[in-house]
Amino acid sequence: MKLLVLGSFVQACCWKVERLPLQGESLTADALSIEAGGKGLNVAIGSRRLAPYAQVDVILGVGKDAAADGLLQLLADERVGSQHVYRLSSQSGYGSGHIAADGQNAIAVYPGPNLLLKAEHADLAAAVIEAADLVYGQFETSLAVLTRAFNIAKQVPKDRQPLTVLNPSPWQPIPAELLDCVDVMVVNEVEATALLKLENPLSGFDLARATRTIEPVLDSFWTYFKGEWLIVTLGDQGSLAWQRNAPHDSPVSSTAFDIQAVDTVGAGDAFASALCVALARKDTPMALALKEANACGALVAKQLGVLDALPGRAKLDEYLSIH
């Protein structure tokens, strides 16, 4: 199995607080964690742990600083390919997060060199992209490198063409050139509301209510989305997946695992990691892919921090065997 991740790297600093601070308020934190983070980085490392036999490569823009030095050592330790990590500025990206006791969070990110990646960096990785089983992208990296990488993937002959998976987060409108190259779209409640042009946000909806809300707009969605799957994650409710030409009112669904959330930062990346590994296996039923992805999200949400919480295959299998 070969996966290529259009990554992002930020040195993540997270403060654990009793509740999220109000505007202008200062609170005393109970704990602090500092670790390498970023949506793409988490997905690359999470995928590698879940598929220890796989080749996982990442395209990253980083700084010329100690944070980037630490990142390169981390990639080596996790056996993630770093030949397409580029030092593009003096300072790497940084992120700050406040994590409340109930698991809610508020995050600010300085993307830095993540946004300095250009289409040419995808061209340099063309051989890796063309050989991949799956290419994953998200919106903490530059649209230029992301669009070019997906275009390269779609130029591969159909019989060995990589599956392209996009999580448009943080949300911004998706350029048509990129949208036309996406096979699997993965969105949370906020992103789904914008993508599907829903009148009301999906936040707080259970699986049944979300299905009833999304169903009426799917015919319109499939006219401008050429891909095969739409996957919507609903946090502690679970996840839904609609396939092109399948009945709108009967999506593949998977309920969430019942946990006490400690820190929801990174749960979506853990979900994406498991989903990508399952889809790259090519013969995994979507119902099982969603169940494994929900389980990985739950395992991360149960702990403070992300990297240490991203599970390996053995831990995921153990968790599924008792739940």
Notes on the structure:
Helices cover 36% and strands 24% of the residues. By secondary structure, the protein is α/β, with parallel strands linked by helices. The mean pLDDT is 94. The two termini are 28 Å apart. The protein has a single domain (2-322), classed as Ribokinase (UDP-N-acetylmuramoyl-L-alanine:D-glutamate ligase). A hairpin with an 8-residue loop joins strand 12 (238-243) and strand 13 (252-255). Helix 1 crosses helix 10 (267-280) and helix 10 (267-280) runs antiparallel to helix 11 (286-301). It has a 9-stranded mixed beta sheet, sandwiched between helices.
Q: At the first level of CATH, what is the class?
A: Alpha Beta
User: What's the total count of β strands?
Assistant: 13
Rg from C-alpha positions? 19 Å
Give the quaternary arrangement of the chains: single chain
Q: In which range does the helix fraction lie?
A: 25-40%
Mean pLDDT: 94
Secondary-structure-derived class: alpha/beta
* Structure annotation, total helices: 12
The rough form would be described as globular
**What is the number of independent domains?**
1
By CATH, the topology is UDP-N-acetylmuramoyl-L-alanine:D-glutamate ligase
Specify the CATH homologous superfamily. Ribokinase
What is the CA-CA span between the terminal residues? 28 Å
What's the structural blueprint in terms of helices and strands?
Layout: E1 2-6, E2 10-16, E3 31-37, H1 39-50, E4 55-63, H2 66-78, E5 81-89, E6 93-99, E7 105-110, H3 119-124, H4 126-131, E8 134-138, H5 143-154, E9 163-167, H6 176-179, E10 184-187, H7 189-195, H8 207-214, H9 218-224, E11 229-233, E12 238-243, E13 252-255, H10 267-280, H11 286-301, H12 313-322
Helix pairs in contact: 1-10, 10-11
